[in-house]
Amino acid sequence: MTSQPRYFWEDFGVGSVREFGAHTLGRDEIVRFASEFDPQPFHLDEEAGRQSLFGGLAASGWHTCALVMRMMCDEYLLDSSSLGSPGLEQLKWQKPVLVGDTLHVRMTVTDARPMTSKPHIGLVRTRWEALNQRDEVVLVMEGWNMFRRRDVPAP
Amino acid sequence: MTSQPRYFWEDFGVGSVREFGAHTLGRDEIVRFASEFDPQPFHLDEEAGRQSLFGGLAASGWHTCALVMRMMCDEYLLDSSSLGSPGLEQLKWQKPVLVGDTLHVRMTVTDARPMTSKPHIGLVRTRWEALNQRDEVVLVMEGWNMFRRRDVPAP
């Protein structure tokens, strides 16, 4: 991209909360993801799902993570100065995600600081929660993202 | 499955190490995953990848996680009494995964205990590392899995 992104490090204020996204999971996409990456019976077969702790055909936890990532991309990441992420400090699959569930994301900025070694880059610590149509939190992730800064040009 | 699985909680001894898997990432699968779940330019386009911190067209971190999951499934999970996972305590994307890299997994059992509330289920704490063809660790995950026990039948 040659144009300037809309969001830089300075735009992720500590304490800010943002809710976004809406994705309803169909049976076919759950089975397709699981067939490729996580072919455990409770992610492939309705009867196996019902007999599992999940109580129904359940999306792979990695599928849920990937869908949250897509909602993050569409909401802000693709129009930002993001440089990627070094990782997460926690990832909790709190409730099953079943066929027909509609997920959205609640994002809370919990910390932010410039990088010591590269002051034109800032770190943002974020908690992302995925919620279903009953506003139950199904997934919690906390971790860091790197963004270029608007106010400190690259050397 | 009506037959007994091969691996139960008792088979994951603390300190045991196991290496397995071999997956070479092609350009097309990197772009296909990223197009659906993580369409940031450095995951879609070679030139954007070269200009990024990754230094080349890089797989989405979630793609790497999903591939590790698949290698875990093929190595032991599908023939085990696994009941799923409550989550991870850490997830580090330590190095970029680029087109042509071949990944495998090193799994180390770091802790194990029966569940207090459900003694027929055991928890296993594991560190999974994904390594590339130069034996560089590209991904580290640590977390818990639940398995039924061989020696304590369900009530």
TrEMBL record, chains A, B:
Pfam families, per the entry: MaoC_dehydratas
Residues annotated as domain MaoC-like: 23-116
CDD domains: YdeM (cd03454)
Name of the protein this chain belongs to: MaoC-related protein
